[in-house]
Write a structure and sequence with these properties.
With 198 residues, the chain is mostly helical. It folds into 2 domains: 64 residues, Fe,Mn superoxide dismutase (SOD) domain (Helix Hairpins); 99 residues, Iron/manganese superoxide dismutase, C-terminal domain (minor pseudopilin epsh fold). The protein has 8 helices and 3 strands; from the N terminus they run αααααβββααα. A hairpin with a 2-residue loop joins strand 1 and strand 2. Helix 1 packs antiparallel against helix 3, helix 2 crosses helix 3 and helix 5 packs antiparallel against helix 7.
Length: 198
Amino acid sequence: MAFELPALPYSADALAPYMSANTVRLHHGKHHQKYVDTLNDLVKDTEYAGKSLDAVVVGSFGKSAHRGIFNNAGQHWNHILFWQCMRRKGGGAMPSELESRVVDSFGSVDAFKAAFINAGVTQFGSGWAWLVVDKGKLAVTNTANAENPLVHDQVALLGCDVWEHAYYLDYQNRRPDYVKAFLDHMVDWEYVASRLPG
């Protein structure tokens, strides 16, 4: 069964003015769609044909002969989470369980946000900033290109795309402003909390 681009869970203009409709349409409809199309072409007649996206990501990671498959599968996986982590009028207070876990791990919500922004800003070149569960504890990390927490046995709660195509139309080279706006005005904290392991 072919991989498909999931529909956005909101309209293209829902994240404005923090992420413009133009950015959303290009990012989702062009960039993300291209990863899906390329992935479908690459997995044809391979050991990955018919496998789940998670299985393709994990199975192809670190294999030089399958780098193209991993890059497109990883980006498909990453973007699915990215779009789901946002909503119209996002940001605001976290649900109590998530906030409690964040405070336990980072000392305060503000300290978590500072760590997350730093992870996004210090990711050299293209990549991602993540809030993950790692060995039962919340942690902030970053990864290059298509790499993600799944391949490191971590549970991804939140992912922010810091490739330039994610923010350049709206923020130019101001990546710190983009990541801060993502946390303060776009994140769906209820969805993030729903990803906490039981």
